Request: fold
Amino acid sequence: MKHVRTRNAMLSLMLLSSFGLAACSDNGNQTAGSSSGSPAANNSGSSPAAASPAASAEEEVTLRFYFGGDKKSATDEVWKAVSDYVKSKGLNVNFVINTIPFGDPYSEKLLVMSSSGDDWDLNFDGDWLAYRQMSAKGAYMTLNDLLPEYAPNLYKVYQEQGTLAAATVNGNIVALPWTMKMNLRPYVKWRSDVALAANIQPEENSIQTVEDLYAFAHQLQDAAPDQKIGFPAGSALMEFFRTRDELLDLSSMGANQFVIDLNDPTYQVKPIEQLQTYRDLAVYASKLYQEGIINKDVLVDKEDAATKYRNGKILMANSSHEWTYATETFSDPSFTSSGSLLYPDKRHVNRTALANVVAINANSRHPDRVLRFLDMLETDQTLYDLVQYGIEGKTYVLEDGMAKYPDGMDSTTSNYMEWGGQWAFWKPQFMRPTETYGEGFWVKEAEFASEPNNINSPLDGFTFNTEAIKNELVQRDQIYSELGVQIEAGIGKNPEASVDEYVSKQQKAGVDKVVAELQKQVDAFIAAKQ
Reply:
């Protein structure tokens, strides 16, 4: 998972920079994390060379899969081994693995391929990539009948988790979500070695509000005046304030900078700039910027906060439960990290099942074979290890059950492990400990997401149809890029006046029309669920 920093993981996921996205997420535990309804695992040994009689009896076909990121050097060799293994189990398929860079290139490529009638078989997607556009245009195959027939074990897991509703459009199941449970409510983490040296290390989880964080940031600034603090700004700071006020961000559903109050039983859609939440953020951001707590280069520095934090360029970064407790891979082994959960008494929605999905192309000629492969992946540890980690001894090694890089290899030089798009295939019952995620990590992650204040979104699976308001939304985004971004970064000495100007411009651009249309669709979605 490149879990933190990172709009909606490209055809798969990606975790939040101090100004950007948190990422998708990445890895875990072998058997201790099995869900109660998971089928018994097949833990057979290495794959036989010869295909089984059943595989030989059916026609051999080639499945074309698309994932995100760069194609790692051993990918084709690994998936040849995957093919040999599934043939030995009766599934006569070969695989061609293609990759597309994440971000806009990924989404745009999928949309173009779909429009051209391309008949690839499966791809990675997510609500931060092209899923909403692809599903809205009917680019993904309806799986209502095929899924229970060809992937009964996977279907059973979905039934127990109740996650298929999120991937259902107009009654049609159009994607296969990951089976993980997570929550990305905000944490903040800091260089504890610097804090300890200055004798200012706070207790774990004692920093719970923006005010607490502000005071602590000043202590760090006094202790290390020559270093950048890196106080979270922009979208990360906005998430702190949304969490404080228990607001659900609708941006991933196609409505940028709109929210609903999780305590409002009528789910009224509100433009964030019209709420006190936004004014409070603007005032705080301005103060932090003027005092040098928010870096002066915040709008021009495009390096994500997680990378800067690991490399010692900043002393503080926004985070999540996952990336606060995962092993931090600092560039300097003397660096250490601590973290704290912000606003623990506030409700926050769990990560959507749509964060990382795989979907079958509506033009695929072999959806039955794809589903049979996915069903095997749900029940077979050996196959799971091949797909996730690759070939033992070449792309990974096992040490006491932990999947590690071979000697001389790490995340930057990996020939297969940590490949982009793997997240949709994560299975808690099979995930092995890694150097990043220790034993039992994903069990604890699921337990955290199950705490009372971590709830499922009332709008999970909902997507706005913005056709009737597309011109107004273009104007809204333009005004945001011209003025809203600067307000959230703290630039400008009169935040109240800047917010007034911003609200006025958005109203002139038709925000009331947008709210009316969005509200109509939310009301219809909620009514259909009751």
In short: The chain has a mean pLDDT of 89.
